[in-house]
Predict the 3D structure of the following.
Amino acid sequence: MKPILASVSCESDKELVLWLRHDWTVHEVDEIRLMLKDALTANVRHIVIDGSNLESIDLSAAWTLVAFIRSLSALNIEIEPRGFTEKHHKIYDIIKDIKHPTSPPANLCHAARDFFTHIGKVSIAIFKGFLDLEAFFGQLCTSALAVLLNPSRLRWKSVGYHINEIGIRAVPIVSLMAFLISIVLGYQGSVQLQRFGANVFTVNLVAVSLLREMGVIMTSIIVAGRTGSAFAAQIGVMQINQETNAMRTFGLDPFERLILPRILALIITLPLLTFLADIVGLFGTLFVSTALLKLSVPEFMGRLHEAVTAQTFIVGLIKAPVFALMIGMVGCQQGLEVRESAEEVGTHTTSAVVQSIFLVVLADALFSILFTWMDI
Amino acid sequence: MTAAPIIEVKGLRNQFGKQVVHDGLDFSIYPGEIVGIVGGSGAGKSVLLNTIIGLRRPTSGSILIGGKDIVTMGNRRKLEVQKLWGVLFQSGALFSSLTVRQNVALPLQESAHISKRMAEELAEVKIELVGLPADARDKLPAQLSGGMVKRAGLARALALDPKVLFLDEPTSGLDPISANAFDRLILALSRDLDLAVVMITHDLDSIFSICDRIAVLVDKKIRVGTLQDLLKDEHPWIREYFHGERAQAAQNIRRVG
């Protein structure tokens, strides 16, 4: 690279001449700043800046020079420009009124303080999140009540559409998951139980855990991932598009039009999907029993009959609508939280999935306590 | 114009399937001039802009930047040449996850490889240059008003001190006061920095007040001339455009003012 600055000092270092040469561009601003700093010696009182050999200078490079000159006048050093052309003056005129940017407050490392601030902020955010969800639940109840009093207000067509989206399209993934999970449970269970010579009880193990817990939990997690996220994203995009505002101008309640059909469809569909998962899971258990335990089909049925009652089945299924309500509520509420940017759609979709899975697991734990207490 | 053209478009043809959008466009852009591109909806203004800035490969024809054809250029070389210009997209196209300051500093850091401190300082200079208030610097694009988004986009387009500035409807969606201020800003930058400006615009005020030459896209061709040339043009669409009621109103106000 051609040298773009030459400096000569004379008169016992009191005077310094800087020759600017060639092209000064934005790509060299770091070097320019360094070179200018290096050229400066302690005793200098007078600096001549010569621009007669300067071919071109752009705004960024000019700013670097101006910033340097300003820092000098603070040190009481005289500046004498020389040989600058009309063009250079024009550029100078543009930037001469720009104030020196106040450098952003230095990022001092207050790690401990930041850490506690962060904890505080997150706690408040979580608490607020629960309050918001409560408020949302209240709103949901009021519009549900309004619809209950006048069922023709609900858009049943929309409910049907969402049942198809949430339910029928999820049949393959839910079936596959239930089948495979029951095979894995059966295989692992039989390996452990074989040590005690009790591997016929594999049927009990798998069937009970499947019908009571695994079926409904796994289905809920899949639906939270598939549908909860979709609700959040759909409603979030509508928020950005101002579709919800447009609805309000027609006197339509977005709650009634968008959210109620979705949540209702989910409450109808999740128990059905859970039922499907239970049945397919039992087929998986049958498969693993005949293949691994060498049980015949009637023997399997006998064991199943012994292990499982209608109660086992209902205890699992009864949780499904509650989980559905949670997934639907969190998904829609997160969607409504979106305000301005597309980026928020991403973050709120993520938190919809995380929060709904968390709530599902929490609710499942509460159900466990409740059922134990009720002796079921 | 005596200086050599900074961009030369030769025999440019753009075609989508059977639909021909541009058929043999020839024109040049010179340093320091402001060229307005006008044309009806669907006349291919944005396609033309995207083709010139190298985002779209034309069906045929060449675009010469400093005598080199960017159409046949490899990607790596093309990226080098693209630093020559700054682009303000219609909706601003600010990076939504970055603040205004970071948006402007990004090309300085990533493309010009300037240190972070210097890049942020220069970003602030550019932000002040386009007249954004100081408290806008640390805001995210979603928190800005329409006019501020345009200014922030302009600051970013100016980040690498380009020789050519492409503006896609810079004043659309701005109130007349902001639009006028934006026009003045572009004019001042162009005159003082010897910056060539190519702008797509529907704003008749911008066309009458700041454009040195106007390029009209009509019948798949382009007609470039000064306002005086185009006022005399007999083509029906051009007549309608420059002598229509809105154009008359804009000119009358200009005359009175």
The mean pLDDT of chain B is 85. Chain B touches chain A through 30 residues (CB under 8 Å).
